[in-house]
């Protein structure tokens, strides 16, 4: 079972017959777990998706100081070794450097926005690692242009405190919409 998040509420629908869960590529554009009938995993997937979109919320609200409770909560789940790897930078960035890059784009064009189109989650069968994939439309980079974007956020469960921490963000640009 998968959950369709494009509705006002979550509605289950069947998987296509050819669908197989894999950790190397995102599943179809919905919330998915490796054991979809397990309500705990479904709730965990939804929680990780909410935490994964805190940075997008900061960019869209121009909350560069990350002061809103939702964004602060997301930041509290960043690993100390967190690194962002946008495809247009030669090296990895800290969270602060990644936000500064978004801030620069927003200062260049006030219409800069990140619109989430689809989000999906895969929780490894060992329940210690997860990936959240976010497909988005990016507007405000060039006048009248909307570009596709894709992010993968990698999560791990920390045995010390039993909390999930995001340790990697991979960002990729796509084609024009």
Give an account of the 3D structure.
The structure is a single chain. This protein has one domain (29-176): Nuclear Transport Factor 2, Chain: A (Roll), CATH 3.10.450.50. By secondary structure, the protein is of the alpha+beta class. It has 4 helices and 7 strands; from the N terminus they run E-E-H-H-H-E-H-E-E-E-E. A 5-stranded mixed beta sheet has the order 3-7-6-5-4, with helices on one face. Strands 1-2 form a two-stranded antiparallel sheet.
List the helices and strands and how they pair.
Elements: E1 2-4, E2 11-13, H1 39-52, H2 54-61, H3 69-75, E3 78-86, H4 95-108, E4 113-123, E5 129-139, E6 146-157, E7 164-176
Parallel strand pairs: 3-7
Antiparallel strand pairs: 1-2, 4-5, 5-6, 6-7
Task: Estimate the global geometry from the Cα principal axes.
Answer: globular
Poorly predicted regions are: 1-35
Mean pLDDT: 81
CATH class: Alpha Beta
Major sheet description: 5 strands, mixed
Q: Please tell me the total number of domains.
A: 1
Helix content: 10-25%
Instruction: Quote the distance from N terminus to C terminus.
Output: 30 Å
Number of strands: 7
Question: What integer value in Å does the Rg equal?
Answer: 16 Å
| SSE succession | EEHHHEHEEEE
What structural class do you assign from the helix and strand content?
alpha+beta
What's the architecture, going by CATH?
Roll
* CATH fold-type name: Nuclear Transport Factor 2, Chain: A
Provide the spatial order of strands within the biggest beta sheet: 3-7-6-5-4
- Number of helical runs? 4
Strand content of the residues, in percent? 35-45%
């Amino acid at each position: 079972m998968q959950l369709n998040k494009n509705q006002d509420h979550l509605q289950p629908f069947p998987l296509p017959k050819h669908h197989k869960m894999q950790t190397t590529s995102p599943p179809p554009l919905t919330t998915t777990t490796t054991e979809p009938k397990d309500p705990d995993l479904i709730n965990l997937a939804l929680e990780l998706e909410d935490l994964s979109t805190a940075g997008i919320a900061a960019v869209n609200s121009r909350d560069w100081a990350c002061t809103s409770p939702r964004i602060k909560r997301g930041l509290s789940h960043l690993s100390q070794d967190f690194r962002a790897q946008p495809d247009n930078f030669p090296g990895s960035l800290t969270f602060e450097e990644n936000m500064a890059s978004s801030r620069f784009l927003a200062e260049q064009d006030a219409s800069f926005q990140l619109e989430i189109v689809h989000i999906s989650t895969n929780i490894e069968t060992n329940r210690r690692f997860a990936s959240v994939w976010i497909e988005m439309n990016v507007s405000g980079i060039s006048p009248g242009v909307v570009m596709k974007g894709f992010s993968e956020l990698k999560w791990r469960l920390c045995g010390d405190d039993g909390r999930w921490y995001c340790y990697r963000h991979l960002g990729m640009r796509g084609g024009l919409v």
